[in-house]
Design a protein that fits this description.
Elements: E1 11-13, H1 18-27, H2 35-41, E2 49-54, E3 62-68, E4 73-81, H3 90-104, E5 109-112, E6 124-125, H4 129-137, E7 141-152, H5 160-168, E8 172-175, H6 181-192, H7 194-202, E9 205-211, E10 214-221, E11 227-233, H8 242-256, E12 261-264, H9 270-277, E13 280-291
Parallel strand pairs: 4-5, 11-12
Antiparallel strand pairs: 1-2, 2-3, 3-4, 5-13, 6-13, 7-12, 7-13, 8-9, 9-10, 10-11
Helix pairs in contact: 6-7
Length: 298
């Protein structure tokens, strides 16, 4: 049933309401099962300032999440308008309200791109044409392109032979349990920063490679359903095949959940994933940005 609504009045919310989750589900044509997960991921970890905008009452017409981490940079984490409420200027009104919030908090540049570690996507999925048009109409310009890769989990993911080879070099690969999750997060923090460390701490599963008590690499999965990542190997240990083993072990875990495919989020080394497990680029995202001079909102 289509929602009933009047001329929208924007309000800020402390937390998403059930009607906002439903709106997100209706708006995300290519992510129909992601609404609850995405609204939960909008929680502000790592000291981010954060706001939710929506129309008041029980209209359930639109929901927006914006956040900052760098004091001068704001991010659009989510903007969803119910299909029956589009082409009425509501999206532009929400963008103006979000930019007003940014400016009040000292933001000078706004991005429609992922704000790790909690983000919906690396940018605007190119299939969401209306969202890209809204960004451009609102003065945002294209700043980059990102992609996710998809893995068929029915392929051979056995890593036993490679694990035996690594063991011969004194490298043990194991689940990050029994006290290893903390060292894995500390390793991620040291080499890649607090966003990756947060993901390691909150992932459904994590595997680590250890030699003489020192972490050499890690891989995590499940910060989003059926998503793999992040993964990293110490520079001194690269070329030993640690990454391939960690990747396959995590994908085995994902397959054990009943998934038949997995998504590798915001991929850097496409060649590695393609050669190791036959992954292919499955989603492409446009990233946008816009300067917000002091005193300008919209």
């Amino acid at each position: 049933m289509s929602p009933s609504y009047t001329e929208p009045v924007i309000q800020f919310l402390a937390a998403p309401r059930p009607e906002d989750v439903r709106t997100v589900g209706m708006a995300l044509r290519y992510d129909p099962d992601a609404a609850e997960v995405l609204t939960r991921l909008m929680a502000p970890p790592l000291g981010r300032r954060h706001a939710l905008l929506a129309t008041p009452g029980g209209d359930g017409v639109a929901a927006v999440s914006v956040s900052t981490r760098d004091p001068m940079v704001g991010h659009w984490d989510l903007l969803a308008v119910h299909p029956d409420a589009r082409r009425r200027g509501l999206g532009r009104s929400l963008v103006a309200a979000g930019e007003e919030w940014f400016v009040r908090h000292g933001v000078r540049h706004a991005r429609m791109a992922g704000n790790p570690p909690c983000y919906g996507w690396p940018g605007i999925d190119v299939r969401y044409t209306a969202a890209a048009c809204l960004a451009e109409d609102a003065g945002y310009t294209l700043t980059g392109t990102a992609w996710n890769m998809t893995v068929d989990l029915t392929v051979d993911l056995d890593s036993a032979a490679d694990e035996r080879r690594l063991a011969g070099d004194g490298i043990q690969v194991q689940r990050a349990e029994d006290g290893l999750r903390g060292p894995a997060a500390a390793f991620a923090l040291e080499h890649w920063g607090d966003t990756w460390a947060w993901e390691v701490e909150h992932a459904s599963g994590c595997h680590v490679a250890v030699r003489d008590g020192a972490v050499l690499g890690f891989a995590a999965w499940g910060t989003r359903p059926h998503w793999f990542g992040p993964m990293g190997t110490a520079e001194s240990a690269r070329g030993l095949g640690i990454g391939a083993v960690l990747l396959r072990r995590c994908l085995q875990d994902l397959r054990a959940t009943g998934a038949r495919s997995a998504e590798i989020g915001w991929v850097g080394p496409k060649r590695f994933y393609s050669l190791t497990v036959g992954a292919a680029v499955g989603r492409v995202f446009w990233q946008y940005g816009r300067d917000l001079p002091a005193g300008v909102a919209g």
